Records
---
Amino acid sequence: MAQFETSRRSLLKAGTAAAAAAIAPAAAHASENDKSVKFDGEYDVIVVGSGFAGMACAYKVAKAGLKVLMIEKMGVFGGNSAICGGNMACPVNPVQKAQGIKDSEELFIADCLKDGLGINHTELLDVLYRRGNDTVKFVTDCGAEFVPNKMLFEGGHSVPRSYEIKAGSGSGYIVPMYETLSKMKNCVMKTRTKFDDFVLDKDGRVTGVVCREGYRFNRKLASDDVENKTGHRRVYKARKGVMLAAGGFSRDIWFRQVQDPRVVPSTDSTNQPGATAGVLLKALEIGATPLQISWLQFLPYCNPHEDGFGVTVNFTNHACMDLGMVVNKKTGKRFMDEHAGRKIKTDAELKVIGKDKNYPIAICDDSIVKAINPSFVKAPLAAKTVFVANTLEEIADHFGIKKDAFLAEVKRFNQFVKEGEDKDFHRILKFNNGLTISKPPFYGVEVAPKIHHTMGGLLINPEAQVISSKTHKPIPGLYAGGEITGGVHGASRLGTVAVLDALTFGMVAGENLAKA
Amino acid sequence: MAQFETSRRSLLKAGTAAAAAAIAPAAAHASENDKSVKFDGEYDVIVVGSGFAGMACAYKVAKAGLKVLMIEKMGVFGGNSAICGGNMACPVNPVQKAQGIKDSEELFIADCLKDGLGINHTELLDVLYRRGNDTVKFVTDCGAEFVPNKMLFEGGHSVPRSYEIKAGSGSGYIVPMYETLSKMKNCVMKTRTKFDDFVLDKDGRVTGVVCREGYRFNRKLASDDVENKTGHRRVYKARKGVMLAAGGFSRDIWFRQVQDPRVVPSTDSTNQPGATAGVLLKALEIGATPLQISWLQFLPYCNPHEDGFGVTVNFTNHACMDLGMVVNKKTGKRFMDEHAGRKIKTDAELKVIGKDKNYPIAICDDSIVKAINPSFVKAPLAAKTVFVANTLEEIADHFGIKKDAFLAEVKRFNQFVKEGEDKDFHRILKFNNGLTISKPPFYGVEVAPKIHHTMGGLLINPEAQVISSKTHKPIPGLYAGGEITGGVHGASRLGTVAVLDALTFGMVAGENLAKA
């Protein structure tokens, strides 16, 4: 059967870039001779993107003996996944059981719905519950290592349910997966290769991709997706299907501001610069269903004096927010449940920060620092983003916190921990294990939210198939997982659930592609 | 230049329906011979949809002497516009000035941003401010009649700034516009004609539409857009451009639930049954930019015992919420600022209603009823949706309101009105003009929110041009206005602003098409 490109309407034909205007008009048609396409290579499966969802899918498919092509537009593999925190939620797992932590599917879904404002697609959360332990086994088999017998108590979760990755970041999954894949003859992985378009057969099945090899992302362009014409065009056939794992658009200056005009070009993001909306938007052109695209999530424990993700996030989150406290400099007092979900904390912090950039101060002490992963402390100390002092008074002086109120507030907080009840913000304190802010040295760090995750995306079903808005059925041959999809998290996600989400739906897509 | 249909990827070729499966696969390609299209007719402008935005655009263009085709998929013209309340906001207008009401662009935009949660596109709100008085003149010239020297004080607006349409509904604009257009030889209007696809030229300019004449909307289908294959295919050329004025998707059972899974098929809507997402989704296929599509707005003054919009909305809104009060039956007390924006009130009501359907009761008295448009009272009295009694005790008995607390609450509310200060919910009371709930007979009515408006849609610029996500520039030949667009209202719109929005951007699109 003859193959047709959708790309007769596409601009991104670098091979003929000389003939195209600098910015071509919308929906331009290609030349006559694109009705049948000449493939430059054939694979069983083509994976677009190399983060958690892409790696997991490629791994599953390659291990099944199929021929895989993974394309990554940036110069390195791993996307945001390689630089994220990397800890992974898993509801109802054996470590919880061994520690007497009672968890359930209902509790997990209720926690997700709370920060997600109730608009999560629970049929997808159900997949995370049903397959979570399979995912843990899968990534462990891949070579990922978790801190043994440890469950993190992450913000917004009602119980400790998150595995801590030993490596201290998502590289703990990406590196071993990549190393295995790079040794497999049936897996080809290409960096600097940008997805441009789909190839469809006459029945609408996705049968390949148009891409550009030798493309170089240019962060100086206002919009790399629109303006960058580098690289040479290649068309590859995917006999079984295509997996979209291209991530979110937190760094897409134009598209994110269309969704939320309050986000200006200078608004910082924790994401790598290649996090743009190009693949998502191209999927809409073949009828993929958009959902909840306008919800941008901020990470509420970033440092305003670092660019991007920085090195301080894990410290602020796991030391000061999981176990310590956060105060408003102007009042010296706490102003939120430091263990709430990301949306609740972001909203509270933005109110405090206001127009005069009154960044909240996150606080902890030596006993707390000794209780967390040592790697979380080293980097911010070296970067001097965290201020260390022998007394709380010095902390107050350094940051300009209203001193008397602050000292009283620390005492009040410590009393709450001892009594196991937060009378001000109803924070769950039982997993503090009695840790208070009492033992010098004391630590303080400024806090600000940065754009972290774009919650919406393409609609998938529990089999990771992309659903067409034209038929309400799967688009044949098209799968997706991770941040390019929407629905799992609703309006806002809890920490460590995205890692589970991307790895699980990558694995599920791989399973389904292997038997397709 | 040869014309190409995008519809080779489309299913909706009723002319060859016999050859198509009942539900064809996504992105199916059409037959070989669709590279050049045979037009069944040529117009200067084709308008898709016949509500405010469509009528205003067609009127402007037809009056300029151009040849216009307006297509409407339903059996009657007017869409939701014909059945909506019809009152129209206009910031900084002469009636306000004559009455000493101080308004400004800043105040108008601040009001919209408040209920819109700050995500409105203010460059579009600015158009409503700059062109609002032009729109009033335009619709008056068209034959619309407002109640003279009257400004309505609508929920969420800080000052009275809305014209009251004499007819008591949006038909007050639609009917005179339609009557004029139907007499013009250069304007052809077709009902039961469903838009299926765009025709594009090789440079991506929209040069026509594919539609089906003799189509019959079938409300019994799970999805009319996907399943209904009725009608015969026609392709029409649009020499200057195409205007999308196809409205929102409040009745698109599938697509609205994808955006908000809490909305189930039985969730009622004020909209006519044809309010589906088909045209919006087809525009995404040619690269139109989606924005804020997942925000559904509920109308917080509907009657749960009527289907759809019903006949009670204007009474509940203008008598009980603008001037009277609303109580929780269980407490007998008020629970919200009855004059807040729609999102704030919807959220408050849904909390009260809960799972046991504890509908709030909206109350007013004879003096209030005498102050509003008499047409707002007649219909609900005839439909018996409103309960009338000589005493407040009877009202309490009838609805099961906690009586003593309720009687005390009415006294408290009346005192607030007299003092001009709402100590409980900070409602603006100065425009109540001293009207209290004191004079029998008294009126009571149950209240529930229904899906009313889908806030997001296509991105347009201030010239009503649809913006491509592929170029960040206008898609040549494509305009849009009204509910199919997004951004003006952000997350939630204020009452009477949508009428201004749709008529203004319809007018602007018409102006630009006339000079295109």
---
Amino acid sequence: PATQTSAAQGQLGFEASTPREWVAQIRAESKASRVAEAREAREVEAAESHSQLADGSGPVPAAGFFSSLRYLGQLDLTYLVCDGDGELVLVDQHSAHERVELERLRGQRGSADVAVQRLLFPQTIDATAAEIELVGRVGDALALVGYEVEAFGAATLAIKAVPAGVRHTDPTQLLRRLLAEWATEGAPSDEERVERLLAEIACHSVVRAGDRLSPGEAEALLKKLDGTEHASVGPHGRPVLLRLPLAEIARRFGR
Amino acid sequence: PATQTSAAQGQLGFEASTPREWVAQIRAESKASRVAEAREAREVEAAESHSQLADGSGPVPAAGFFSSLRYLGQLDLTYLVCDGDGELVLVDQHSAHERVELERLRGQRGSADVAVQRLLFPQTIDATAAEIELVGRVGDALALVGYEVEAFGAATLAIKAVPAGVRHTDPTQLLRRLLAEWATEGAPSDEERVERLLAEIACHSVVRAGDRLSPGEAEALLKKLDGTEHASVGPHGRPVLLRLPLAEIARRFGR
């Protein structure tokens, strides 16, 4: 789209025109895939360690699991309470939506589908020399997720476009925070930066604890979880669902 | 009402006409009250021992507790799932209704409000000599809860009226079963027999696990629990409610 930089298209899109560019593109995508896989593995591991704390948390749900749940209502505007087959199921609405949104963003990165909000007037932020240098190196990675940013003088960055859909924080401040972090601590790779950006965008785009969901919205979210890999684990490694077997509930009731 | 025997009215109603009858009536009512109190105490004790098993079961709920719950829906057609103030609350629909109904029946016993189903044709059942002798002794107690029964020859009982509202068993068979039990084992007192009858009538009149309740029916039941003493304990000493604090749920979700 008009909102994407040509540099990003040249590096990771499908417009590579020379064999050398083509090889570089394959390598980058292969690396992106490995990084994402490693991240998934860590998330699943973290969730499994949580599950051991959680009595009644079952194994990873079967295909079609979330669609089969009968939605009862929201608990504390935070959890979706569901009648499952032989169990009471609670779904953390934020973690669930975050997982769904992160997968959607990952699927769209660098493509024409990335939702970008072009700013009518570029927004400028103060920046250190290290941050400006960093943007010069990682500008293409930022563009993959919807940020268009460039140096504007020696101590200022101009932000021309931001990812659309970020509701819970100012996307400009989000970028500023990550740049400051990366300029001091660095990140293992551009891929890690892109992943981190996607996770932050997902986290700040989706419903949170305290958001009221209509039954239709809740059911739509549950259905989307079924189309998502690792749906039982949120991007921060927290469980998305808590399963309380009816047998355990009956025991507590003395039935 | 026409459906009550005059013997029952003479013994425990307000029609006592001599000082001796009046004293007997006071004594009987005082005893009934003591028996009911002792039964309550045993039920509460039994429920408390259950509560110790049940993590998250809180203390006896405050006044207005059940009305304040936001009803979400039925779980497994057995439990009413509710969003409480700071907790997830499950209510066992059968135990809850049984408790409400038992209190209602206790309040009505021997009064004009007892719902009686008079049989168009008396129903006869075979009976032992011991059972027939027993009916002669406890007929008045049976009348207090709606049974009208008398000997019909040497080996038969004629049942002329039964408590109304018993849905889940044949009230005639229920009486037959209890008479057989009492004729062999006996019961501490007529009061115990009346209590046992009321409990059986309540148990067989109310909703059970597997009954579908409309939201309106569920909410009406919750409201009635608030008008009931010992609402957190079913007549069989099982907990009526299970309380899962949100803090515990949040911990399990890693929040």
---
Amino acid sequence: MGLAALPRGLGGGWARLRGLTGRPGGTPARPGGAAAPAAPLLWPRGAARPRGEGTSPAAAPRRREVTLTGPRYGVRRRPFRALSGRDLAAFERLVPGRAVTDAEQLAPFNVDWLRSVRGCSKLMLKPQTTAEVSQVLRYCYERNLAVNPQGGNTGLVGGSVPVFDEIILSTALMNKIISFDKVSGILVCQAGCILEKLNEYLEDQGFIMPLDLGAKGSCHIGGNVATNAGGLRLLRYGSLRGTVLGLEVVLADGSVLDCLTSLRKDNTGYDLKQLFIGSEGTLGVITAVSILCPQKPKAVNLAFLGCQSFAKVLETFTTSRAMLGEILSACEFMDEKCMELVERHLKLSNPLTGSPFYVLIETSGSDSTHDADKLNNFLEQAMTSGLVADGTVATDAKKIKTLWSLRERITEALTHDGCVYKYDISLPVGKLYDLVMDMRARLGQSAKNVVGYGHLGDGNLHLNITAESYSHFLLDAIEPYVYEWTARHKGSISAEHGLGFKKKQYIHYSKPNEAIFLMQRFKAMLDPKGILNPYKTLPTSSEGNMH
Amino acid sequence: MGLAALPRGLGGGWARLRGLTGRPGGTPARPGGAAAPAAPLLWPRGAARPRGEGTSPAAAPRRREVTLTGPRYGVRRRPFRALSGRDLAAFERLVPGRAVTDAEQLAPFNVDWLRSVRGCSKLMLKPQTTAEVSQVLRYCYERNLAVNPQGGNTGLVGGSVPVFDEIILSTALMNKIISFDKVSGILVCQAGCILEKLNEYLEDQGFIMPLDLGAKGSCHIGGNVATNAGGLRLLRYGSLRGTVLGLEVVLADGSVLDCLTSLRKDNTGYDLKQLFIGSEGTLGVITAVSILCPQKPKAVNLAFLGCQSFAKVLETFTTSRAMLGEILSACEFMDEKCMELVERHLKLSNPLTGSPFYVLIETSGSDSTHDADKLNNFLEQAMTSGLVADGTVATDAKKIKTLWSLRERITEALTHDGCVYKYDISLPVGKLYDLVMDMRARLGQSAKNVVGYGHLGDGNLHLNITAESYSHFLLDAIEPYVYEWTARHKGSISAEHGLGFKKKQYIHYSKPNEAIFLMQRFKAMLDPKGILNPYKTLPTSSEGNMH
């Protein structure tokens, strides 16, 4: 299955491109041309990410029971009230037929996708309207019952599942599109809409969502906003802080804050919605979102390139930015270890081989001829200057998906490699891979694999370390070293995943005490009883000085 | 002085373009071709906007004394302490030689650019460092002295000058660039850097500022951030909420909040800096800014087009967005009244005539051939479908500036037309001009001119009404009608200017009570004594229910 020919100049693969540009020298074409992965994809780009056991054949070996978070991490339950029969009856009245208490039904919502944390909630509520969310929270607030807001439960830092017996407040049934305006490109929808469904809806009308991520098939837009999700399109369309125009939020006491405007610009007072973007459900429950959507690009191309060093990866990025300009829509990188893992565990095949680094460069534009021209010029430059040793290009949607899956499914491949220690680091782009090499040297044989990949264009490294099983010894070798290293280089210890439950005690490495103190004051003001997603995002005073 | 020929196809003017595309029919070419304005420009694009009297010959007739804000608007001074000799001595120690008390020197900083509000501050402090700002505020906080933070004093809603005797805290001497990283495009600078100077600095390195506005020659980046300035590039590069990566802010009590990170992504806790963006100096004083800057486009083109109806203006916009895609960098409109005013008061000449509406469409891209091609296709389509009746195109920097000045200097022209009532409204783009027509019909002969222009692509209308002199009768005919109209169409009563002093009591038209209440709680938390820019942005409890 070869890659289709690009229109006007860009050939079906690297070899043809080389022929076209007619440059002497350079690396010989890969034998067999630029073949796309031959193995069938279990979860192609756009499909739901496998969640928990039973949803994926490959996940079968991971059926071990997950240890409860409380004992595992030594957390003490705060003095929230325990659920009573009277409470259950009240909730059944508020959301009739949508108060789930069956233990088996609850199980997958008590454990995170990585199977690293597990709560023991006895109740999940599935409201359909903002009014229901408001009534539920008002009741919880009055009765001092803790609440865990939950979207698609695809988070990677333990923010989306209960730590103890918090009531799970699911947005799963809040999945209505409220409006879409084709003139302005503004979509208004309930918080429980699945990202991929929204994108499909928009594509039919010539638009796309401004964000895209591997978990798109499961994640909810409300959860995306609550975690300020980054993803693959941030380089081009910017962060949710710019694209989210309005939010409707229910506060801890049940009051509804309506900031659901659909205006590109509004400078009337403080921008309250920003506080809820990235607050991980600790300040309020997002019930509806207004978001600015870009037009669907008429032409998309994807180049998958091999580089012989990280210095060449960096120069490939700066060259692509200079030469592709406004059509550059993604610039991702991964090291050869990542490729080995997706090949071994997911049976995907890498169309290139023999490079220590791989770069994915996507262009999205409004004119396929112009875009092919720009990409062609860039590739010729990258090849003749020796930045790129090998490469292939895809232009039709299916082949693009196939290539993207090599990058998007790394997270999944890692879960099959054993126990995973995940780090999501922002760094000055020049330092991005130093941390991986440093960690690899530091851990030596005690780690199974130390891999680095991520959003090169955004300075965002996903550092992952795998081992056969969980080990305190290994963890102590990694932490706080990884955080100290990041702080020393003025990076962020969480670029896009958030802090959730697992990273909150490390906030000090990226934020000064004055900022943390102010965050705690905001939390105390908006949620004085602390019922919303407790044990998450912010360290408590006693936890605040752990290092 | 004709417009230079565009490379590859786009001619020097409309006539040539029509010849090139060779379409029969359509509007005959303007006699004399597409001539650029012949009159010399007093303040060309990029020069400082004339500020107050004496800086501009044309401003001479406006030398009348401005009434003090307190009596004019019936505001009562809050019980802040009055400045004592002991205070003056203390400030002279904190910022030696930079505590201005001379009445004549202070005069221009007590009055706004529109000459609509005037305070009576007896002291302006000009700190050079964050530490000095911190010491000054700590002193003011302890002594209960009110403070008016001031950047370039170019605001249009009376937010940047004192209402009574607040101490003016000027950022004029905080004008150092701290760092610029060419790999990431991230600029870090002090708050008092002038926008245009920053842009010039960046252009030398192949980058530009992500915002641009008429006041660029005077306004400070700190003030831009404090008011969440929009401007001419927002359509392309997004709002400051996305491009500002970090801020350093001094809080009311003098404590320094260091959120001056230079990372594209950082999800460690709540994004505190967002609260200060657009807070108009009421929550803290911004002392330094970290901002993501786009690459300088290699090719810029500007088309100035005449349309026979607002419906055609709208269709021209949607067509340009569809056909120019990623290279569209601005889409502005103005009505013929605006053009009459810049011609009459500033002696600029309109290269087109006879159209009730004009549209400015700017493209910025990385390949001049491709861009000219896209623009050509768009113009042909716009012409043959009858959307556009007349037009001219500029491609070199000087001609582009000349055309841009027709749009950028409307604000200035208005100040020469008499007393100006200014409204900065966000609306669904389809409703944008209805308000102007409605207002024109409503006011009839009681207004001199009712004009509409603005950022079409952002749904942002600048509605301006002029009269020979100030009249309560006229004001009552405009307000609250204009705000009610805006609220009825779910618009915002301040798209980009902020609320400042003059619009704060109308916040209810765009924000629900719950949101205003929450804003007041944030203000009370961060500035419990209310010393920072008092009488601005938020209504006090008694002022809150004025309508």
---
Amino acid sequence: MSVTAAQGFTAAGIAAGIKENGNPDLALVVNNGPRHAAAGVFTSNRVKAAPVLWSEQVLKGGEVSAVVLNSGGANACTGPKGFQDTHATAEKAAQVLPGHSAGEIAVASTGLIGVLLPMDRLLPGIGKAAAELSPYGGEKAAIAIKTTDTVHKTAVATGDGWTVGGMAKGAGMLAPGLATMLVVLTTDADVDGPGLDKALRDATRVTFDRVDSDGCMSTNDTVLLLASGASGVTPAHDEFADAVRTVCDDLARQLIGDAEGASKDIRIEVVNAASEDDAVEVGRSIARNNLLKCAIHGEDPNWGRVLSAIGTTRAAFEPDRLNVAINGVWVCRDGSVGEDRELVDMRYREVRITADLAAGPESAVIWANDLTADYVHENSAYSS
Amino acid sequence: MSVTAAQGFTAAGIAAGIKENGNPDLALVVNNGPRHAAAGVFTSNRVKAAPVLWSEQVLKGGEVSAVVLNSGGANACTGPKGFQDTHATAEKAAQVLPGHSAGEIAVASTGLIGVLLPMDRLLPGIGKAAAELSPYGGEKAAIAIKTTDTVHKTAVATGDGWTVGGMAKGAGMLAPGLATMLVVLTTDADVDGPGLDKALRDATRVTFDRVDSDGCMSTNDTVLLLASGASGVTPAHDEFADAVRTVCDDLARQLIGDAEGASKDIRIEVVNAASEDDAVEVGRSIARNNLLKCAIHGEDPNWGRVLSAIGTTRAAFEPDRLNVAINGVWVCRDGSVGEDRELVDMRYREVRITADLAAGPESAVIWANDLTADYVHENSAYSS
């Protein structure tokens, strides 16, 4: 279903020859209206890829009528030529999509940083994709944006007469301030730009922004939400926002579940924090601790590494009041040895760490992955 | 030579049975005076092991006459009982070292967090170590503090009639704000406490604090500098400080060279930064980027990952003015593709990354390691 679950959208995914192995690498998503409202959230990395710089400008215009996405190259750190290439991509799309202008066409790219895209293949690919646009093209589009993803990722939520659908890619370089991910969400609800923007920011803050696979922040992260208004229904904001968050949460979990080389999904819940910011800071510190990530991989309930990670933060807590549970067993009580660590069963893919700061009423959940030899292998050979 | 290179010191290293494999696990370093001046630097982790809390108190008294160090257990996150055990360790040492009081005896521990030490073995071990104290015992002491270290680490620098010597352990959990390391430095120079403190802090700030093997900060880091005054020489402060820094730098490089599972030592030099703080922040961000660390392991000059790491910092820079060299080849110029990456030769263990922020006159060097499957293996099985 993906981005074509909602009415008013067509999509396509094709092999343009950007990837040398011939796999699909170019996706096109078109909003056929009547409305072309849009919102976007982009990487907070200060080194931004050309398509991010371009799409941020497009979003300022308030309307997005189509998105061109490519895998096989990030077009990041590619200088003025890289930006010209993104511009040419939007112009080409405007040319093959009658009635659209380049200034309404967002572009997203993913792949290796620091390499120019093969425009002699990409530009003809846009024409080819336009010819294949279909209200059933959502799955093909989701497949075409994969890089090291082992599966394509889609999600759908429905309201009373309206739908939110989406697709995502991302399997490495996943970290807050957005994961290396490209996400396109579509809806046929009749929602204006400000309504989309609020729903999207509220959703990403507690979903994609709380995924931390490997602590690395990308140059290309892009999450777009496009509304066609084709259902003719304007839902209550909260109802709509819930649906957007549901789809984002679903896709974020799929990203963690497909993280490069991971064998465990780690759900880190920080409770009794003095503030939500404290909870998130502690959760991220735990999520990024390589020693702990290795221990989880080895099914070792090494809670000392959790405390060690908490101790590096500025959050409010007293060391001798900290409690830590792993899969429900409180292995650390009052900053010291708690229940028998032998009671912890870590055979399953999902591992739950609860860190109790005993400092207040706030909480947050961060999702992470273990660190494995497979992660090292995938990422030491990626560009070669 | 180690901690007994300087006059006035004796040391021993023995197997007390703390480690189940029977390897040496207890070291004793004694300052026989005439002076017992000392300075110490400890972990900045807010979760501090019992021996750190104890030794911080001892240092406040201004005199340290002996140090008991054990491997085989960190005595961290062990609650009131853990602190009592550290206290008992110092009391036992005072008992077997006539003329010394427990309040002058520092304690340092390393090993697994969250496990109580086997005091029934440790305490008799102190008596055994005291019986073996020798002015030639420095090497044995250095061997007894090893955990996953593959080699013991010692260094010496000499002045005109005086000497600074030292030993270190540490092979993982190496990060700024001190690595997981135990370091004891000794000198026969006649220097008072404030002089030692200044020399030690100035040295650690640019040596141990700029080592970042895996971004993980320990609960037990301890660096002690003891002065016996036995040479009768009081060197000029700068001369003495140079010697201390030389020994710290030597030991810090040995730590990086022996980091768990590492196949590459990565020297990250950040140049043309607006401030030294900016240079250090950028250097650490690069040092902690798992994707880059994997790429270095794969001998892949993936400079995009360097830019991506720089982009997550608050340092002053413009993305399109960044330059990056890997082993002397400027693969990134003005934030974009520079010299041919095929020119980069990464066959050797040392890899040099230069990040030019083009924002000012300051610089800093951070040392890190690559991320390897061996690191994952060592750390996923450490406690089991």
